[in-house]
Amino acid sequence: MSIDPTDPLGGTPADVATLLAEADGAAALVRRLRGAAIRDLLIPDAARLDDRRRAALRTLIRAIVGTIGADIHDFALRRLTEVDEGGAAALSRVDACHLIASIEARLGTDEAIAGDLIDRVTLDLIGDGLPTGLIEQAPEPWQGRAAERAGEALRQAESRRRTPPDQPPYATDLPAESQAAFTWWIAAAIADVARPPLTDTSAALDRALADGAAHSLAQADEGERLEAAATRLAAVADLRGGALVGALDHALAERRVVLLAALIAHAAGTSFDSVRVLMTEPADPRLWLLLRSLDLPRESIARIGFALCEADHRRDVERFADQLDAVMSLPVADAVLATAALRLPAAFRAARASGETVR
Amino acid sequence: MTDMAAALIDGEGRLVEADPRIAALNASAGGGIGQPLALPAIGELARLSRRLGIVIARPAVVADGEDDVELWIRARPQPDGIRVEVSGWRDRAPEPSPAPRDAHRFDAAEAQFFWKSDAAMLVTALSGEGFDAAAAIGQPLTRLFDLTTDEALLPLLSAAAARGSFADQPARIAADGRAIRLSGRAQVDGGGVFAGFVGTGRFVDAAPAEPVVEATPAFGEQFADRLDRALRTPLQRIVAHADSIGAQADGPVRPEYVEYAQDISSAARHLMGLVDDLVDLSAIERPDFAIASETIDLADVTRRAAGLLAVRAANAEVRIDRPAMDDVLPAIGEFRRALQILVNLIGNAVRYSPRGGVVWLRLDGGEGSASVTVADQGRGIAHEDQARIFDKFGRVDASEPGGNGLGLYIARRLARAMGGDVTVESEPGQGARFKLTLPEG
């Protein structure tokens, strides 16, 4: 089907100007690459994303840019076609793949949002790897209309997220803060790429993109996310003691990892995000302390620990077995004290942590 | 479980007592009663179960002489030691008859929807376009999928009984009768008992080849039939294994091997595409080749074809500008064949588009015909080559990867059999516009 071996975009061979421009930028490029190589060397292996998490994260970022970007782009294009043909033409040349690099660069500057994405794909991958057959039978322990309805909503949210995390399509399911940040980043990135030559066009284009972003944001409902549905069920069911143990067993038996995190978070009086960090970070022993603070039986903690070790190859089951004995020898009251900080509001904890670096 | 064998291991890891099957396996590995267990996979699990104080279950492969046996091992702490229950006892086939995990992985790549059921065959998850997932969840699987028409229930049940998998079973969506193919993998609980299915499915419109009907056995037909059977299964196996190496399903693999695995997989997929085309070729070249004449919505067919290629386009960073959801374009032809033609045309357009390019799909009706134009921003085709690309094996540049030079030949033959045509307009450097025309519906 193709014959002409020249550049499909019709470019001429590299000319002198290009050569000189490349030479001009070369020193900075080399510095940047060297810097990145050194930073890469200094990253401990434990902090490095493995290939599956990398792929899952890339897939998620693409899905986010694709869905939010399409919302904004379609809206702005419809608006501009009526009022400004030049702007519409500039806009129609923008495609999602032009935006990815810019969005990834912005992610690099926002630790909170990037961290949320990493934790979320990591937990999804852990859920994917949870072992079967650990528990013989564990039916859904909640009762009552409200809990059943919340349970159904959770099943549906889980179903929407069923695609393997490293393959598209993968539901975006963003919390409100991230949704807002991504929406404005993407709108700004579209404006940058479209970059129309005339000033009045630029104003109309910016207006249309801003309205498109606001329109897209108005449609997002963070309450529909899987994490929110699980948190709601955990709150409605409000389980303690034996019922909580049964519910944790149910979540493990059915490999419902987000529900597992939500049940622990609710019972411990901490946030879902805090528990998710503990579950996705193998070096953090606070998860075991938090489970101990709930006065769970040893078997229950052992099952959760074993399941996480099976699902996450970064964890070491022998080390967990060592820690388990130590955790169980700790009085519950001490465990409650040791995990008190986790029950503080996240913003307060963040402010305290940044205060320490200021001093 | 009839095939379950048990053993008791004391606190020091020594075998206290064992059913004959475990005792024999242990003896063949050089162990005996009162001695440390000689089966490391079982011993490790027993030790872990004792340390953690919980029931633990894992699959394991244990050597039995020169063969490997696949076992499901469950270790349970007791006052007098660890009781180990071993079930499964399946010989690990040296030539894996589509290993459940691999078959599942392969299907996932081609899947258009995902489903999941529990042991009672109630749907617990469903995702994919065109479903009312909320209504299906909690309902019996058989209410969602009509499994009776093509005797698909049997493979499902036998997969459940054997705790294995089934692949590519024909079935229908119960609600609207759309033909689908289902694949699934049985999930197993701690006792080795069936705990439900995790599965994928695809709509059968996308199935490229149908077995040729037995009529006058000609050389060509038999050849295609045999080719299909002889090559497809091994190729699927190659793809499945290469994909599972590439996905690092069984642990980390060095990056260059991941790339090799991807090369192997893509080469095998290319060969599978060739097999599909050769089977089609032999079908359309038969004198009694007939095509159904029905009213179809060409706009709908175009949207579906674009949908089937969405993932490939996304990977190539190409955008497909598909018709609006409410566009309708009635035409006369056979749905499956029209879809096949459009998948070919759009697939070519995606393949030859530059990164960041757009493939436009335009619908036109009137004057007794309905047409779809597929326009790309590729390099275009020189005038002297435009006739040749519709020839059998008529590739312009044989050194290019992808494609085998049969697609457009088949597409044009199929279109003409439906009373239409496939034509091309192109100028070098200005992309190509392929047009499928069918009689107006």
TrEMBL record, chain A:
UniProt biased composition (Basic and acidic residues): 146-164
Region (Disordered): 140-172
Superkingdom as given in the UniProt entry: Bacteria
The name this protein goes by in its record: DUF2336 domain-containing protein
Native species: Sphingomonas yantingensis
Automatic annotation (TrEMBL), chain B:
One annotated GO molecular function: phosphorelay sensor kinase activity
Domain Histidine kinase stretches: 226-441
Keyword Kinase assigned: yes
Reactions this protein catalyses: ATP + protein L-histidine = ADP + protein N-phospho-L-histidine
Domain of life: Bacteria
InterPro entries: HATPase_C_sf (IPR036890), HATPase_dom (IPR003594), His_kinase_dom (IPR005467), HisK_dim/P_dom (IPR003661), HisK_dim/P_sf (IPR036097), Sensor_HK_Regulatory (IPR050736), Sig_transdc_His_kin-like_C (IPR004358)
Protein name in UniProt: histidine kinase
Organism annotation: Sphingomonas yantingensis
Lineage: Bacteria, Pseudomonadati, Pseudomonadota, Alphaproteobacteria, Sphingomonadales
